[in-house]
Amino acid sequence: MAAASTPRVITCKAAVAWGAGEPLVLEDVDVSPPQPFEIRIKVVSTSLCRSDLSAWESHAIFPRIFGHEASGVVESVGLGVTEFQEGDHVLTVFIGECMSCKPCKSGKSNICQALGLERKGLMHSDQKTRFSIKGKPVYHYCGVSSFSEYTVVHSGCAVKVSPHVPLDKICLLSCGVAAGLGAAWNVADVTKGSTVVIFGLGTVGLSVAQGAKLRGASRIIGVDNNPQKCENAQSFGVTEVVDPNSYREPIAQVIKRITDGGADFCFECVGDTDMITTALQSCCDGSGLTVTLGVPKVKPEMSAHYGLFLTGRTLKGSLFGGWKPKTDLPSLVEKYMNKEIEIDDYITHNLAFDDINKAFNLMKEGKCLRCVIHMP
């Protein structure tokens, strides 16, 4: 009986990226059984995040399976896993929570020492891959790789949710929506009556807007040059939109002028290090705070005049909105189920797995917020 229940290799369809910017190809991929402290998940829904697109366009690790915003059902568990069992509904997360390292226990950081960002396309535990095609390795992305019918993640990189929660909606809490809300609440601690400026009105930026609105910000100014995104911004809490292309003067000067000296809070949600400097310049003297959330695909170094800091401005980074995934995500799911936060309106397209390249094209062209891909 024991041998019959031992997990075996599964062969399934996965969208494999063979090179930078090349269309993904649906391939038959072998998915290994979960190793100790890992779980294998049948992916139900997964959405395309801007960081997937950026990595696909620029990273050198191929072949690779992208995707990290996902929900699914546990198919099997590895040795030592006690938190999950077959049939559990889960959210995947791109940074884990081991619950025992110094940052996890300190309460000061959500960057787990054991299960932080995966950068080499390999599993945390043994630096190997669980995917292969004809015996040759296919690499992971963000420790999740959800553009596959089945995937393997460390048990610390999954969060159990109620079977009554709609998996096709809450997959957005795996990254984008949670990251924006957390940046406004946990990292910036936006205050009532404050002025907020958001650079970039994608899913993350509009999630910041939702968080700022719920905190009672009086002005929420969105900065974006995409007319389609600007049109929809007000429904998420943005009170006014600024298109940089409509002004001859630098956008930081525009913000300083229309806010009478600068914003209380600025959020960089583009992934452009030059925009971080612009956001800093748009903050008010003395107490202005800039939070950067974007992931740049080029020019990772930034520069800023020391005077911006000498006059009291602060720059903070935000990864996953400061949330500890296992500790904090269940409360966000509960807020969604209680209609205290909005998720559904960020979903602009629902696509079949066969149409995954359409999702990439829509995001490249700036014609979507989140495309949710429904697995077979």
From TrEMBL:
Cited InterPro entries: ADH-like_C (IPR013149), ADH-like_N (IPR013154), ADH_Zn_CS (IPR002328), GroES-like_sf (IPR011032), NAD(P)-bd_dom_sf (IPR036291)
Family, similarity comment: Belongs to the zinc-containing alcohol dehydrogenase family. Class-III subfamily.
Main enzyme class: oxidoreductase
Occurrences of domain Alcohol dehydrogenase-like N-terminal (ranges): 36-161
Keyword NAD: yes
Annotated protein name in UniProt: alcohol dehydrogenase
EC number per UniProt: 1.1.1.1
Residue span, Alcohol dehydrogenase-like C-terminal domain: 204-331
Biological process per Gene Ontology, one example term: formaldehyde catabolic process
Source organism of the structure: Pisum sativum
Any one annotated GO CC term: cytosol
Domain of life per record: Eukaryota
Keywords: Metal-binding, NAD, Oxidoreductase, Zinc
